[in-house]
Backbone:
Protein backbone atom coordinates (compact mmCIF):
# COMPACT_ATOMS: atom_id res chain seq x y z
CA UNK A 1 0.00 0.00 0.00
CA UNK A 2 1.42 3.38 -1.05
CA UNK A 3 1.35 6.03 1.70
CA UNK A 4 1.01 9.73 0.83
CA UNK A 5 -1.73 12.32 1.38
CA UNK A 6 -4.05 9.54 0.22
CA UNK A 7 -3.64 5.93 1.26
CA UNK A 8 -4.54 3.54 -1.52
CA UNK A 9 -5.59 -0.08 -1.04
CA UNK A 10 -6.37 -2.68 -3.64
CA UNK A 11 -9.78 -4.24 -3.13
CA UNK A 12 -10.65 -7.51 -4.82
CA UNK A 13 -7.86 -6.84 -7.34
CA UNK A 14 -10.14 -4.46 -9.28
CA UNK A 15 -11.29 -1.66 -7.01
CA UNK A 16 -9.22 1.15 -5.63
CA UNK A 17 -10.22 2.75 -2.37
CA UNK A 18 -8.43 5.86 -1.22
CA UNK A 19 -8.56 6.83 2.43
CA UNK A 20 -8.02 10.50 3.21
CA UNK A 21 -7.66 12.14 6.58
CA UNK A 22 -8.27 15.70 7.68
CA UNK A 23 -5.82 15.38 10.56
CA UNK A 24 -2.60 13.48 11.21
CA UNK A 25 -3.29 9.75 10.99
CA UNK A 26 -1.37 6.63 10.14
CA UNK A 27 -1.82 3.25 8.52
CA UNK A 28 -0.37 0.16 10.17
CA UNK A 29 -0.66 -3.06 8.17
CA UNK A 30 -4.33 -3.38 7.18
CA UNK A 31 -5.53 -1.10 9.97
CA UNK A 32 -6.15 2.63 9.91
CA UNK A 33 -5.22 4.63 12.98
CA UNK A 34 -6.99 7.84 14.00
CA UNK A 35 -7.82 9.66 17.22
CA UNK A 36 -11.22 9.86 18.89
CA UNK A 37 -13.30 12.72 17.37
CA UNK A 38 -10.88 13.09 14.45
CA UNK A 39 -12.49 13.67 11.07
CA UNK A 40 -12.11 10.58 8.91
CA UNK A 41 -12.89 10.72 5.17
CA UNK A 42 -13.13 7.48 3.22
CA UNK A 43 -12.98 7.97 -0.53
CA UNK A 44 -14.04 5.22 -2.94
CA UNK A 45 -13.47 4.97 -6.68
CA UNK A 46 -16.72 4.18 -8.51
CA UNK A 47 -18.24 4.78 -11.95
CA UNK A 48 -17.06 7.78 -13.96
CA UNK A 49 -19.92 10.28 -14.12
CA UNK A 50 -20.67 13.98 -13.65
CA UNK A 51 -22.98 16.44 -11.93
CA UNK A 52 -25.00 16.74 -15.14
CA UNK A 53 -24.97 13.07 -16.19
CA UNK A 54 -28.28 11.70 -17.49
CA UNK A 55 -28.14 9.03 -14.79
CA UNK A 56 -28.09 11.43 -11.84
CA UNK A 57 -25.26 10.42 -9.45
CA UNK A 58 -26.89 12.23 -6.53
CA UNK A 59 -30.23 10.48 -6.88
CA UNK A 60 -29.64 7.14 -8.60
CA UNK A 61 -26.59 5.96 -6.64
CA UNK A 62 -26.44 5.46 -2.86
CA UNK A 63 -23.42 5.10 -0.62
CA UNK A 64 -23.98 4.00 2.97
CA UNK A 65 -21.11 3.02 5.26
CA UNK A 66 -21.75 1.06 8.46
CA UNK A 67 -19.23 1.75 11.23
CA UNK A 68 -19.37 -0.77 14.05
CA UNK A 69 -17.74 -1.31 17.43
CA UNK A 70 -18.82 -4.22 19.58
CA UNK A 71 -22.64 -4.18 19.43
CA UNK A 72 -22.90 -0.59 18.16
CA UNK A 73 -23.61 0.15 14.52
CA UNK A 74 -23.72 3.63 12.98
CA UNK A 75 -24.87 3.94 9.36
CA UNK A 76 -23.49 7.06 7.70
CA UNK A 77 -24.61 8.31 4.26
CA UNK A 78 -21.99 9.19 1.67
CA UNK A 79 -22.03 11.48 -1.35
CA UNK A 80 -20.75 11.99 -4.89
CA UNK A 81 -17.50 14.00 -4.79
CA UNK A 82 -16.64 14.45 -8.51
CA UNK A 83 -12.84 14.04 -8.81
CA UNK A 84 -12.28 14.02 -5.03
CA UNK A 85 -10.49 17.38 -5.14
CA UNK A 86 -13.27 19.64 -6.39
CA UNK A 87 -12.59 22.53 -4.01
CA UNK A 88 -9.30 23.06 -5.82
CA UNK A 89 -10.07 21.78 -9.30
CA UNK A 90 -13.68 23.07 -9.63
CA UNK A 91 -14.32 19.74 -11.34
CA UNK A 92 -17.91 18.66 -12.00
CA UNK A 93 -16.98 15.13 -13.07
CA UNK A 94 -15.10 12.09 -11.84
CA UNK A 95 -15.67 8.76 -10.16
CA UNK A 96 -15.17 9.48 -6.46
CA UNK A 97 -17.70 8.91 -3.68
CA UNK A 98 -16.89 9.88 -0.08
CA UNK A 99 -18.11 9.44 3.47
CA UNK A 100 -17.12 11.48 6.53
CA UNK A 101 -17.12 10.11 10.07
CA UNK A 102 -15.78 10.96 13.54
CA UNK A 103 -15.41 7.99 15.92
CA UNK A 104 -16.71 8.74 19.42
CA UNK A 105 -15.15 5.77 21.19
CA UNK A 106 -11.61 4.49 21.55
CA UNK A 107 -10.78 0.97 20.43
CA UNK A 108 -11.25 -1.12 17.33
CA UNK A 109 -13.92 -0.18 14.78
CA UNK A 110 -14.85 -1.93 11.57
CA UNK A 111 -16.55 -0.47 8.52
CA UNK A 112 -18.30 -1.89 5.47
CA UNK A 113 -19.57 0.07 2.47
CA UNK A 114 -22.88 -0.44 0.69
CA UNK A 115 -22.91 1.06 -2.81
CA UNK A 116 -26.03 0.45 -4.87
CA UNK A 117 -27.66 1.80 -8.00
CA UNK A 118 -31.34 2.26 -8.81
CA UNK A 119 -34.04 4.80 -9.60
CA UNK A 120 -34.20 7.39 -6.78
CA UNK A 121 -32.31 4.97 -4.52
CA UNK A 122 -30.61 7.80 -2.64
CA UNK A 123 -33.83 8.53 -0.75
CA UNK A 124 -34.88 4.90 -0.26
CA UNK A 125 -34.96 3.41 3.25
CA UNK A 126 -34.66 -0.14 1.89
CA UNK A 127 -31.04 -1.31 2.36
CA UNK A 128 -31.42 -3.87 -0.45
CA UNK A 129 -33.01 -1.49 -2.98
CA UNK A 130 -31.39 -1.48 -6.42
CA UNK A 131 -28.34 -3.45 -7.52
CA UNK A 132 -24.86 -3.85 -6.09
CA UNK A 133 -22.20 -1.97 -8.08
CA UNK A 134 -18.49 -1.09 -8.07
CA UNK A 135 -17.00 -1.10 -4.55
CA UNK A 136 -20.08 -2.46 -2.76
CA UNK A 137 -18.87 -4.53 0.22
CA UNK A 138 -15.52 -2.74 0.65
CA UNK A 139 -14.44 -3.02 4.28
CA UNK A 140 -11.69 -2.23 6.73
CA UNK A 141 -10.64 -1.76 10.35
CA UNK A 142 -9.96 1.48 12.23
CA UNK A 143 -7.98 1.66 15.46
CA UNK A 144 -9.07 4.70 17.45
CA UNK A 145 -6.68 6.19 20.01
CA UNK A 146 -7.45 8.74 22.69
CA UNK A 147 -8.41 12.29 21.72
CA UNK A 148 -6.03 15.21 21.46
CA UNK A 149 -5.54 17.14 24.67
CA UNK A 150 -8.42 19.49 25.44
CA UNK A 151 -10.90 17.81 23.08
CA UNK A 152 -14.29 17.83 24.82
CA UNK A 153 -16.23 15.95 22.17
CA UNK A 154 -19.42 16.52 20.22
CA UNK A 155 -22.23 18.74 21.46
CA UNK A 156 -25.22 16.67 22.60
CA UNK A 157 -28.50 17.42 24.36
CA UNK A 158 -28.28 16.37 28.00
CA UNK A 159 -31.03 14.97 30.20
CA UNK A 160 -31.52 18.52 31.52
CA UNK A 161 -32.19 19.61 27.88
CA UNK A 162 -29.09 21.82 27.82
CA UNK A 163 -26.30 21.41 25.30
CA UNK A 164 -23.31 19.61 26.78
CA UNK A 165 -19.96 18.48 25.42
CA UNK A 166 -20.09 14.69 25.14
CA UNK A 167 -16.89 13.96 27.05
CA UNK A 168 -16.40 16.81 29.50
CA UNK A 169 -20.15 17.28 30.19
CA UNK A 170 -19.51 21.04 30.26
CA UNK A 171 -22.60 23.07 29.37
CA UNK A 172 -22.44 25.06 26.12
CA UNK A 173 -24.16 28.46 26.01
CA UNK A 174 -24.57 29.90 22.53
CA UNK A 175 -23.56 33.43 21.73
CA UNK A 176 -22.72 34.71 18.29
CA UNK A 177 -23.55 36.30 14.97
CA UNK A 178 -27.09 36.06 13.56
CA UNK A 179 -26.34 38.29 10.57
CA UNK A 180 -25.77 38.30 7.69
CA UNK A 181 -28.12 35.37 7.19
CA UNK A 182 -26.67 34.98 3.68
CA UNK A 183 -23.20 34.52 5.17
CA UNK A 184 -22.44 31.88 2.48
CA UNK A 185 -23.10 34.36 -0.36
CA UNK A 186 -19.34 34.76 -0.67
CA UNK A 187 -17.72 35.74 -3.94
CA UNK A 188 -14.85 33.23 -3.60
CA UNK A 189 -17.18 30.20 -3.65
CA UNK A 190 -17.71 28.47 -7.00
CA UNK A 191 -21.14 28.87 -8.57
CA UNK A 192 -22.20 31.68 -6.23
CA UNK A 193 -24.13 34.60 -7.69
CA UNK A 194 -27.42 36.45 -7.46
CA UNK A 195 -30.05 34.16 -8.94
CA UNK A 196 -32.45 37.06 -9.46
CA UNK A 197 -32.81 40.66 -8.35
CA UNK A 198 -33.94 40.71 -4.69
CA UNK A 199 -37.04 42.63 -3.64
CA UNK A 200 -36.52 45.90 -1.85
CA UNK A 201 -36.96 45.24 1.88
CA UNK A 202 -36.51 47.21 5.07
CA UNK A 203 -34.11 46.43 7.88
CA UNK A 204 -31.84 43.40 8.06
CA UNK A 205 -33.68 41.70 5.19
CA UNK A 206 -32.44 44.35 2.75
CA UNK A 207 -30.14 42.66 0.24
CA UNK A 208 -26.79 44.38 -0.16
CA UNK A 209 -25.31 45.11 -3.57
CA UNK A 210 -23.24 42.21 -4.85
CA UNK A 211 -21.79 39.26 -2.98
CA UNK A 212 -19.88 39.36 0.29
CA UNK A 213 -16.11 39.82 0.12
CA UNK A 214 -15.44 40.42 3.86
CA UNK A 215 -12.56 42.57 2.64
CA UNK A 216 -11.87 44.27 6.00
CA UNK A 217 -11.18 40.84 7.48
CA UNK A 218 -8.51 39.75 5.02
CA UNK A 219 -6.04 41.20 7.49
CA UNK A 220 -7.44 38.82 10.15
CA UNK A 221 -6.41 35.80 8.06
CA UNK A 222 -3.28 34.19 9.54
CA UNK A 223 -0.42 32.30 7.98
CA UNK A 224 -1.34 28.62 8.03
CA UNK A 225 -5.08 29.26 7.79
CA UNK A 226 -6.87 27.50 4.92
CA UNK A 227 -7.38 28.92 1.43
CA UNK A 228 -8.35 27.36 -1.88
CA UNK A 229 -7.33 27.92 -5.49
CA UNK A 230 -4.46 30.20 -4.56
CA UNK A 231 -5.58 32.80 -2.06
CA UNK A 232 -9.37 32.47 -2.18
CA UNK A 233 -11.24 32.41 1.12
CA UNK A 234 -9.10 34.82 3.11
CA UNK A 235 -11.91 37.30 3.75
CA UNK A 236 -14.32 34.73 5.18
CA UNK A 237 -11.65 32.85 7.13
CA UNK A 238 -10.48 36.17 8.57
CA UNK A 239 -14.06 37.11 9.52
CA UNK A 240 -14.41 33.83 11.44
CA UNK A 241 -11.07 34.46 13.17
CA UNK A 242 -12.35 37.89 14.20
CA UNK A 243 -15.61 36.52 15.62
CA UNK A 244 -13.80 33.81 17.58
CA UNK A 245 -11.32 36.36 18.95
CA UNK A 246 -14.26 38.40 20.26
CA UNK A 247 -15.54 35.39 22.21
CA UNK A 248 -18.30 34.30 19.84
CA UNK A 249 -19.03 30.57 19.61
CA UNK A 250 -21.72 30.26 16.90
CA UNK A 251 -22.51 31.59 13.42
CA UNK A 252 -26.10 31.48 12.10
CA UNK A 253 -26.73 31.32 8.34
CA UNK A 254 -28.98 29.98 5.60
CA UNK A 255 -28.01 27.08 3.35
CA UNK A 256 -30.81 27.88 0.86
CA UNK A 257 -32.38 31.25 0.09
CA UNK A 258 -33.69 30.67 -3.45
CA UNK A 259 -36.86 32.76 -3.59
CA UNK A 260 -35.95 34.30 -0.24
CA UNK A 261 -34.42 37.61 0.78
CA UNK A 262 -30.95 37.35 -0.73
CA UNK A 263 -31.44 34.86 -3.57
CA UNK A 264 -27.73 34.08 -3.51
CA UNK A 265 -27.18 30.90 -1.45
CA UNK A 266 -27.94 27.37 -2.65
CA UNK A 267 -26.15 23.99 -2.76
CA UNK A 268 -27.32 23.16 -6.30
CA UNK A 269 -25.56 23.47 -9.65
CA UNK A 270 -27.91 26.30 -10.67
CA UNK A 271 -30.56 28.61 -9.23
CA UNK A 272 -33.31 26.66 -11.03
CA UNK A 273 -31.93 23.18 -10.19
CA UNK A 274 -33.35 20.96 -7.41
CA UNK A 275 -31.78 17.52 -8.01
CA UNK A 276 -28.07 18.13 -8.70
CA UNK A 277 -25.45 19.54 -6.35
CA UNK A 278 -22.36 21.67 -6.88
CA UNK A 279 -19.50 19.47 -5.64
CA UNK A 280 -16.81 22.15 -5.72
CA UNK A 281 -18.93 24.77 -3.95
CA UNK A 282 -19.92 22.31 -1.22
CA UNK A 283 -16.30 21.21 -0.74
CA UNK A 284 -15.38 24.88 -0.32
CA UNK A 285 -18.16 25.23 2.27
CA UNK A 286 -16.56 22.26 4.02
CA UNK A 287 -13.21 24.08 4.21
CA UNK A 288 -15.00 26.91 6.01
CA UNK A 289 -16.85 24.54 8.34
CA UNK A 290 -13.61 22.70 9.18
CA UNK A 291 -12.08 26.02 10.17
CA UNK A 292 -15.11 26.77 12.33
CA UNK A 293 -14.43 23.48 14.13
CA UNK A 294 -10.85 24.57 14.76
CA UNK A 295 -12.07 27.88 16.19
CA UNK A 296 -14.79 26.32 18.37
CA UNK A 297 -17.59 27.96 16.38
CA UNK A 298 -20.94 26.17 16.11
CA UNK A 299 -22.51 25.80 12.66
CA UNK A 300 -26.13 26.97 13.03
CA UNK A 301 -27.54 26.04 9.63
CA UNK A 302 -31.01 27.33 8.74
CA UNK A 303 -32.24 25.08 5.94
CA UNK A 304 -35.11 27.27 4.69
CA UNK A 305 -37.02 30.46 5.44
CA UNK A 306 -40.66 31.42 5.26
CA UNK A 307 -40.26 33.00 1.82
CA UNK A 308 -39.19 29.67 0.27
CA UNK A 309 -40.92 27.14 2.51
CA UNK A 310 -42.83 25.82 -0.52
CA UNK A 311 -39.85 25.82 -2.85
CA UNK A 312 -39.22 22.09 -2.49
CA UNK A 313 -42.09 19.71 -3.33
CA UNK A 314 -44.54 22.63 -2.94
CA UNK A 315 -43.97 22.46 0.81
CA UNK A 316 -44.32 18.68 1.08
CA UNK A 317 -41.57 16.21 1.95
CA UNK A 318 -41.00 14.48 -1.37
CA UNK A 319 -38.03 13.66 -3.55
CA UNK A 320 -36.60 17.19 -3.65
CA UNK A 321 -36.69 17.82 0.10
CA UNK A 322 -35.47 14.34 1.04
CA UNK A 323 -32.56 14.65 -1.37
CA UNK A 324 -31.70 18.15 -0.13
CA UNK A 325 -31.49 17.03 3.49
CA UNK A 326 -29.63 13.86 2.60
CA UNK A 327 -26.89 15.83 0.86
CA UNK A 328 -26.50 18.32 3.70
CA UNK A 329 -26.39 15.53 6.27
CA UNK A 330 -23.94 13.37 4.32
CA UNK A 331 -21.52 16.24 3.80
CA UNK A 332 -21.78 18.20 7.04
CA UNK A 333 -23.40 16.22 9.90
CA UNK A 334 -20.03 14.93 11.10
CA UNK A 335 -19.03 18.33 12.52
CA UNK A 336 -18.78 18.49 16.30
CA UNK A 337 -20.94 21.59 16.75
CA UNK A 338 -23.83 21.76 14.30
CA UNK A 339 -27.46 22.73 14.82
CA UNK A 340 -29.97 21.98 12.06
CA UNK A 341 -32.62 24.69 12.07
CA UNK A 342 -35.46 23.37 9.90
CA UNK A 343 -36.80 26.83 9.15
CA UNK A 344 -36.86 30.47 10.13
CA UNK A 345 -40.10 32.46 10.56
CA UNK A 346 -41.99 29.46 9.23
CA UNK A 347 -45.71 29.20 8.49
CA UNK A 348 -45.29 25.67 7.11
CA UNK A 349 -45.93 22.91 9.63
CA UNK A 350 -42.79 20.87 10.29
CA UNK A 351 -43.99 17.35 11.02
CA UNK A 352 -42.88 13.74 11.03
CA UNK A 353 -42.10 13.42 7.29
CA UNK A 354 -39.56 16.25 7.45
CA UNK A 355 -38.13 14.96 10.71
CA UNK A 356 -37.75 11.51 9.12
CA UNK A 357 -35.92 13.10 6.21
CA UNK A 358 -33.35 14.27 8.76
CA UNK A 359 -33.09 10.90 10.51
CA UNK A 360 -29.80 9.91 8.84
CA UNK A 361 -28.10 12.69 10.79
CA UNK A 362 -28.49 10.82 14.05
CA UNK A 363 -26.63 10.28 16.33
CA UNK A 364 -25.32 13.81 15.61
CA UNK A 365 -28.65 15.60 15.22
CA UNK A 366 -29.44 18.86 17.03
CA UNK A 367 -32.66 20.45 15.75
Residues:
Amino acid sequence: MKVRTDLYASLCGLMIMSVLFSCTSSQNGNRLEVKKWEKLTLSFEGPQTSEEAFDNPFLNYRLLVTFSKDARKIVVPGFYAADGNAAESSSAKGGIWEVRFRPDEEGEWAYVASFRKGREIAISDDPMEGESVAFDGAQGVIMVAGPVAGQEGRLVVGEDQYLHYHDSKRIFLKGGAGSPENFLAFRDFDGTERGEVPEKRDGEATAKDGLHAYAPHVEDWKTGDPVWQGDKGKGMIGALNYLAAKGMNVVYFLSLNIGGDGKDVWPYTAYTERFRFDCSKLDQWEIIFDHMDQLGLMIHMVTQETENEKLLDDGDTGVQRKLYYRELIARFAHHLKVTWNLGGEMVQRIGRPMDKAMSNARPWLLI
